[in-house]
Amino acid sequence: MSKNPVTPAIRWLKAQRAEYSEHPYEYEEHGGTAVSARELGVDEHQIIKTLMFCEGPKVVVMLMHGDRQVSGRELARQAGLRSLEPCSREQAEKASGYQVGGISPFAQRKIWPTYAEDSIRQLSYLYVNGGKRGFLVGMTPLTLEALLQPQWVTVKREK
Question: What is the pTM of this model?
């Protein structure tokens, strides 16, 4: 892969003077976090996926370990909403400003309420999407927390 992309997320991280590392990899359609973990040589549990959930026009961002699923019902309950469903591809892309498979939690079109699985804080290092398919940024959970100030929740289901 050639030089690393400069995405809105990267511009934003640089503006925040965040400490992070850049990790391009060979993207595979529908490969998910298993492919990025394999390509980076890390545990899939360290890959943090950015998921978009909707309740009508309301959108929430959920950060979850790559090897876990989100209970939409539990997320809705903890977010104080009636119900949440995964956003459609079109809704997710419109809300985030990124292409599905490359959605970063940083520098989205609008600031949405952001939730993160509490156990992410126990990782020594994590990898989250940098705003383009095949491109992750690495950082500590403390850096992620300082940048996004998510509400920490426990909504995981085993895959």
Answer: 0.95
